Amino acid sequence: MMNTNGIHHITAIAGDPQQNLDFYAGVLGMRLVKRSVNQDVPDTYHLFYADAAGNPGTDLTFFPWPALAPVKRGAGQWDEVALGVPAGSLEYWRSRITAAGAPGAVSVGEIVTRFGERVLPFSDPHGLQLALVEDQSYEGFVSEPWHDSAVPVDKQIRSLAGVRLVEQSGEPSVSFLAESLGFRAGASEDGWQRFTVGEGASGQRIDLKLDRDAPRGQWGVGAVHHVAWRVPDTEAQSAVQRAIAAAGGRPTQVIDRFWFRSVYVNEPGGALLEVATDGPGFSVDEAPQNLGESLVLPEWLEPQRTQIEAALPPLSWPRG
Ligand code: ZN
Q: What domains can be seen in the chain, in order of their start residue?
């Protein structure tokens, strides 16, 4: 059976893009590695935050859609995105996020222990549920610290660690994730069962909760849009695409996202997932030292650059 190798990137829906940039690049100290547009809705930004190099496994991306209603959290929907941080850094993070006084819905919980790891749950300014986890499955950066970050290197977010998923009926999703992406069932705690994929790195977990009474989740501001899982190349991607079809899923054709190639499918509970190649990466159309500094458009949208830029709200770098 073909496996995927953990999380490639996670895409969520934000409100105001400047508030999104201020929070992720400013407060959380991630690098804006790509400033582009939604390829299907080009009057909307697509903002990518990651480690210094924008490596797969570190990348949290947003479609800012301030006009959308808030998310209705529920079943068939990805929830709480966990970000890996170094051991012993949660006290630093708790006071940093609290002190930032960011606008909107930012709320910081207490430090708790889950599956033997220390975790700080909080939400971003637009209601996206997040958690910083002292991820013991992987020590160190998936790739590179960001030396221009407002957050010191020994405290920086190092990776995407995992994601939660609530389902009304667990069995179809569990079988599908096992047969198509290679997930294995692990321990349970407090009603959550941990499923893992791949070997020896971060971003390899889904914590699944079965809740027959949960209302169906609905996309909105503060929702996870989709979770992308890594494959090394297009050959491995074709194999996973076939495994998805064999497991009863209906995968899309391969879509060229320029920085990677993507296949999408809804798992049986309804949550949207993507299978994305590791390459070619974010340096394909910008020099590594200039990532995120200017608006990058796919070639076929270049002729409309003037109109697109006029329709996008201006963005300025976070203060400090
Ligand atoms: Zn994606």
A: 6-311 (3.10.180.10)
